[in-house]
Design brief:
The complex is a heterodimer. Chain A is an alpha/beta fold. Chain A has eleven helices and 20 strands. Helix content of chain B is 33%, strand content 37%. Chain B has five helices and seven strands; from the N terminus they run βαββαβαββαβα. In chain B, a hairpin with a 3-residue loop joins strand 2 and strand 3. Classes of the chains: A alpha/beta, B alpha+beta. Chains A and B meet through helix 11 and strand 19 of A and strand 1, strand 3 and strand 4 of B. The structure holds zinc ion.
């Protein structure tokens, strides 16, 4: 079988050539940031490091890390490596804690973004004869505009549907017959649910592929989306600090996500020591943006947990694959000393028959004890007149969560649609604990 | 003949039952009987109504979770032992009653008992054979 590739020359470039290109690009970048970004210059100077000390990609580990806090400390434009005259786009992600993270793009950065997003969508077989439906939010969030840019770069007719007004989106899906969709996985399910409620089957749509990301999702959720929307679902990964969507993408083999390594270098490090970890070992994902002009970050600590997958992919791409992040360290909750990712709760629910995927976790502290309550929505299929069966259903969920996570929780069945539907990113967790540690 | 009962899921929160009755009132549906089974976390509101289809549509349109269940509606005399005799007949036939509630008969005399048994068809046969009077949807409609 031959695999789809938007830019075969880049994506399947020989390994040695890729390494050379990375070295060349890293050296050039290091010179540039030393000259243009005061924070990096100070950091290099205090380490006694000169740009000339970086001679190849092998010297990457000599460079200092960049933290999210650095972006906050230099808010809003302090880490930009170009004058504002050259910046053509600003995006910002709302921080759940503290200041928002601001990122900028030059004209060349926009081209780069279009290219890496085009590779992302192209990997799913999208060509310029396709029609794209972009259901990521358009605005300060990078999802909508970045996704749309990739679709337009390929030459697809692009529908900037953004989020919200699901009824109208379904009408567009039925009437304009887009062949692929970009959305958060939870919004894809909201669309599917709306269709089912209104007697619209996936047959009346023409979707063949969907590219989902921006929030953690599980394999069972992938199956659910594929079945209900009748398409092949691809996982995509990105973060605004690196470029937005387009950092890493799945090929048709769907065994990990290929990193656009000619532009973004992936390291996996031990979050405690900062030491690089060998392929096949889980650790913190770190990216270096070798070619970005406006915001070239060096060794940016994403706080996402991931792994470099060893070995080559059948598709022919030479770009390293990363394991789908297990969850963002920001999303991780520590409940009674146990690390819990919301996506784990989701997997549990999806694997239980007849349990709706709509849930919300509420963490509270009573005295010195953390209490986890999981709200699970009932559906007409799961609702029964018999109280005993409903109680058994709650117990089934409690037991399953206990066996997977090792913590006790209380499961509360709630009315359908009583858990807020998030048409952008899903907020699955309400942490009512005040952050008092020790 | 079995009667259709509507069950509605209700969270344990203030006004949950009123939300249900409000929807029915706005849809012009009259309640014939109501019973609430509750646990610490939620309740199941069971209803016998005059206009079943309208009630179902209105409840669903208001986002409520509903289910229809077949129940036996038994008309008994308003005399001591009337209900007991019915239960005795069911128990002797090996039928278990899961829940039951009663209301003043819409046909004017005696009382009406709603029964949900583990084997509804068998309960129906048993009670009919023993000469008990059972109500149908028409009896609660008028
Ligand atoms: Zn591949």
């Amino acid at each position: 079988m031959s695999y789809h590739m938007y830019n075969r020359e880049a994506e399947a470039m020989p390994k040695e050539k890729l390494r050379e290109l990375q070295s060349e690009r890293l050296c050039e970048m290091v010179k540039r940031v030393y000259e243009k970004v005061p924070m990096y210059r100070e950091r290099f100077d205090s380490m006694g490091l000169k740009p000339e000390d970086i001679k190849s990609i092998n010297d990457l580990t000599k460079l200092p890390f960049t933290y999210k806090q650095d972006l906050r400390d230099n808010y809003p434009f302090g880490l930009f490596a170009v004058p504002m005259d050259e910046v053509v786009r600003i995006h910002a992600s709302s921080g759940t804690t503290g200041k928002q993270t601001v990122v900028g793009y030059t004209e060349k950065d926009m081209k780069l973004w279009g290219e890496v997003m085009a590779r992302t969508i192209g990997a799913g077989g999208v060509t310029k004869s396709d029609i794209g439906h972009i259901s990521y939010g358009y605005g300060l969030f990078t999802g909508g505009l970045g996704g749309g840019l990739g679709s337009e770069t390929i030459g697809c007719a692009t529908i900037p549907a953004s989020t919200g007004n699901t009824k109208r989106q379904v009408t567009i899906l039925e009437d304009f017959k887009p062949t692929f969709i970009l959305a958060t996985p939870s919004y894809a399910l909201t669309i599917a649910e709306y269709m089912e409620q209104n007697g619209i089957t996936a047959d009346s749509l023409n979707l063949k592929a969907g590219f989902f990301g921006a929030e953690p999702w599980t394999e069972s959720m992938r199956k659910e989306i594929e079945k209900r929307l009748n398409l092949k679902a691809y996982d995509i990964y990105g973060l605004s600090e690196v470029i937005g969507p387009g950092v890493a993408y799945e090929c048709e083999c769907q065994h990990g996500l290929h990193v656009n390594e000619d532009h973004f270098y992936l390291e996996i490090i031990d979050p405690e020591t900062g030491e690089p970890l060998p392929d096949g070992t889980e650790g913190e994902i770190v990216f270096t943006c070798m070619t970005k002009e406006a915001l070239p970050l060096i060794r940016y600590r994403t706080r996402d947990v991931g792994m470099r997958i060893p070995g080559e992919c059948e598709c022919g791409r030479t770009f390293v694959r990363m394991m789908k992040p297990a969850g963002r360290t920001d999303d991780m909750l520590i409940i009674r000393g146990v690390n819990v990712f919301p996506s784990q709760i989701e997997s549990v629910l999806m694997e239980l028959d007849g349990i709706a995927p709509y849930y919300q976790m509420i963490v509270e502290r009573t005295g010195n004890l953390d209490n986890l309550t999981v709200l699970v929505e009932l559906t007409e299929d799961t609702f029964t007149d018999e109280v005993r069966k409903l109680e058994a259903m709650s117990k089934k969920v409690t037991d399953a969560i206990h066996s997977v996570l090792g913590i006790a929780c209380k499961v509360k069945l709630v009315e359908p649609k009583s858990i807020e539907r998030f048409e952008g990113k899903a907020k699955r967790v309400i942490d009512k604990r005040t952050q008092v540690n020790f | 003949m079995l009667l259709k009962q509507i069950s509605v899921f209700a969270e344990n929160r203030r006004g949950a039952i009123m939300d249900i009755t409000g929807v029915l009132f706005n849809a012009g549906v009259n309640l014939r009987a109501i019973s609430i089974a509750d646990t610490t976390d939620f309740g199941v509101v069971r209803l016998i109504v005059d206009k079943r289809k309208e009630a179902l549509t209105a409840l669903r349109e208001n986002g409520m979770t509903v289910k229809e269940t077949d129940v036996v509606a038994l008309a008994v005399d308003d005399t001591p032992g009337a209900f007991h005799n019915a239960l005795k007949a069911l128990t002797e036939s090996g039928i278990m009653v899961e829940y039951s509630y009663g209301f003043v008969s819409p046909i004017g005399e005696g009382a009406t008992i709603i029964l949900k048994c583990d084997d509804q068809e068998k309960a129906l046969g048993c009670l009919t054979a023993k000469g008990f009077k059972l109500l149908t949807a028409d009896d609660v409609k008028f």
